[in-house]
Amino acid sequence: MLSRLISSTRGIPERNDVPAHIAIVMDGNGRWARKRLLPRVAGHKRGLDTVRKVVKLCVDQGVSHLTLFAFSSENWRRPADEVSFLMQLFMQALREEVKKLHKNNIRLRVIGDLSRFDSELIETIRSAEAQTGGNTALTLSIAANYGGRWDIVNAVNAMLASCPEKRGAYTEEDLAPHLCLADAPEPDLYIRTGGEQRISNFLLWQLAYTEFYFTDCLWPDFDEAAFAQAIDSYRKRERRFGRTSEQLAGGSDKQD
Ligand code: IPE
Ligand code: IPE
Ligand code: MG
């Protein structure tokens, strides 16, 4: 079990046909709606249907961790009415889905700087996390007001507070436990829908050796076939983690 948490820069993570951890930037909701002459928020609503489907697909395929980018630290820059719709949708989804998630043995948690959310939303998040905290089929992490740079700065501050005496001698191992998702294996597969090929301040540290998969498919259109295509592409990747193909062919693709 512990070997799955091996750092990709410190050792060689286990090779698996089904990714243990998938991280997804769910992009393209607005364009999906605009194409249909609908308001952008209609796309966000449909995007939630895709979330339900993808969660189920992950459970069915034995993916143990799914991390979804729902709202970035930069998404506050959007028009106020879209931001407020997204907050309401988030709250409503948490309330409506938590029972079902719990029934399906799914652990839910929210990563990001929650301090900017109103107290009712924070309470709803905490209660959903508490209710599902012991579940083991899938860990579903929702990134909300999350930014990769925030995550790193937050971890640095926590690290400095926890061992101030180490000044000047900190290592990756000192920092890593303070980052979001420290208890999850690093993502094996990063999927971004919507055609853009960028990270947009998602998991900057955690994606060090993740396989990237970009698709033009808009998030509300991302279905079982599109998901299967992403997994298929992942299966064909040669994950070298700094080594050569010849080394892999020679059988050194094993745990450090
Ligand atoms: C992603 O879809 C959802 C969020 C960022 C909340 P977008 O809203 O970014 O959709 P596009 O990129 O404008 O189509
Ligand atoms: C990234 O999408 C954030 C989420 C999907 C939540 P954006 O649509 O906000 O990204 P940019 O602005 O195009 O980079
Ligand atoms: Mg977008």
From TrEMBL:
<feature type="binding site">
    <location>
        <position position="76"/>
    </location>
    <ligand>
        <name>substrate</name>
    </ligand>
</feature>
<comment type="similarity">
    <text>Belongs to the UPP synthase family.</text>
</comment>
<keyword id="KW-0808">Transferase</keyword>
<dbReference type="Pfam" id="PF01255">
    <property type="entry name" value="Prenyltransf"/>
</dbReference>
<feature type="binding site">
    <location>
        <position position="211"/>
    </location>
    <ligand>
        <name>Mg(2+)</name>
    </ligand>
</feature>
<feature type="binding site">
    <location>
        <position position="44"/>
    </location>
    <ligand>
        <name>substrate</name>
    </ligand>
</feature>
<protein>
    <recommendedName>
        <fullName>Isoprenyl transferase</fullName>
        <ecNumber>2.5.1.-</ecNumber>
    </recommendedName>
</protein>
<feature type="binding site">
    <location>
        <begin position="72"/>
        <end position="74"/>
    </location>
    <ligand>
        <name>substrate</name>
    </ligand>
</feature>
<dbReference type="InterPro" id="IPR036424">
    <property type="entry name" value="UPP_synth-like_sf"/>
</dbReference>
<dbReference type="GO" id="GO:0016740">
    <property type="term" value="F:transferase activity"/>
</dbReference>
<feature type="binding site">
    <location>
        <begin position="198"/>
        <end position="200"/>
    </location>
    <ligand>
        <name>substrate</name>
    </ligand>
</feature>
<feature type="binding site">
    <location>
        <position position="78"/>
    </location>
    <ligand>
        <name>substrate</name>
    </ligand>
</feature>
<keyword id="KW-0460">Magnesium</keyword>
<feature type="active site">
    <location>
        <position position="27"/>
    </location>
</feature>
<comment type="function">
    <text>Catalyzes the condensation of isopentenyl diphosphate (IPP) with allylic pyrophosphates generating different type of terpenoids.</text>
</comment>
<feature type="active site" description="Proton acceptor">
    <location>
        <position position="75"/>
    </location>
</feature>
<feature type="binding site">
    <location>
        <position position="32"/>
    </location>
    <ligand>
        <name>substrate</name>
    </ligand>
</feature>
<feature type="binding site">
    <location>
        <position position="27"/>
    </location>
    <ligand>
        <name>Mg(2+)</name>
    </ligand>
</feature>
<comment type="subunit">
    <text>Homodimer.</text>
</comment>
<feature type="binding site">
    <location>
        <position position="192"/>
    </location>
    <ligand>
        <name>substrate</name>
    </ligand>
</feature>
<keyword id="KW-0479">Metal-binding</keyword>
<feature type="binding site">
    <location>
        <begin position="28"/>
        <end position="31"/>
    </location>
    <ligand>
        <name>substrate</name>
    </ligand>
</feature>
<dbReference type="InterPro" id="IPR001441">
    <property type="entry name" value="UPP_synth-like"/>
</dbReference>
<feature type="binding site">
    <location>
        <position position="40"/>
    </location>
    <ligand>
        <name>substrate</name>
    </ligand>
</feature>
